[in-house]
Amino acid sequence: MNMPAIGLGTFRLKDQVVIDSVTTGLEVGYRHIDTAQIYGNEAEVGQVIAASGIARQDLYITTKIWTGNLSHNKLIPSLKESLTKLRVDQLDLTLIHWSVSEDVLSVAEYVATLAEAKALGLTKEIGVSNFTISQMQQAIDTVGASEIATNQIELHPFLQNHKVVEFARKHGIHITAYMPLAYGKVMQDTVMQKIAAAHNTTPAQVSLAWLLQQGFAVIPSSTKRENLVSNLQADQIKLSTDEMLAIAALDRGERLVNPDFAPKWD
Length: 266
Prior knowledge:
- Helix 4 crosses helix 5 (133-143).
- By secondary structure, this protein is α/β, with parallel strands linked by helices.
- It has an eight-stranded parallel β-sheet, covered by helices on one side.
- The chain has helices at residues 15-28, 42-52, 72-86, 107-119, 133-143, 162-170, 190-198, 203-213, 225-232, 241-248; strands at 8-9, 32-34, 60-65, 91-96, 123-129, 148-154, 174-178, 217-218.
- The protein is built from ten helices and eight strands.
- It has a domain at 8-183 and 215-223: NADP-dependent oxidoreductase domain (TIM Barrel), CATH 3.20.20.
């Protein structure tokens, strides 16, 4: 199964909240679920998937390896633990969640170990997240661009990450946009509101449509049924060239996810 363009993100969703969100998401039609080791919700996601009755081949499940598990002796055991929590035999996609300092481990080391995990059949595809251009280049040098299924990065109208996107496109690496609604900030923007009104839709749907029309995958999260439904319908909106350009003009380099261990951004 190829990655569905619209997925369900589970960042910051815990316990019953994530159970309800993923249960509703699957009910309304999501088939791509995105989680991570550090989210602390893999077991709950696995519980919902097991209870859903949806055939495994009809689901696309992504998890991400946390920084503390990147060493050669930890990565594969940690991924096996994720599989146990998620109650599946194989992931569709496994990402390196964040890089670590080159002084600790080189990109080549953990990308090569992730490729080993794929060779073992633990995951169908591998990729990266929050990788800079130089880190993507190191990953390409290690396993080849064709092995890198995606780079999952923060991407929304206020942070458009052009340099990283251009480099990825040049090498045929797909982009997955996380935080596509900028923590809800798109809803307050007058340009987004105006375009939404013209389409009789919401600014959230407009933001997702804008990303989808550029060929990115999106993984918005929500706990409300109506938002889960409307997010999933974003691919039905077709924005004009002028509307696409108006949203492109909103870029202000506003990064919302920037932990102290983040790389030096491009």
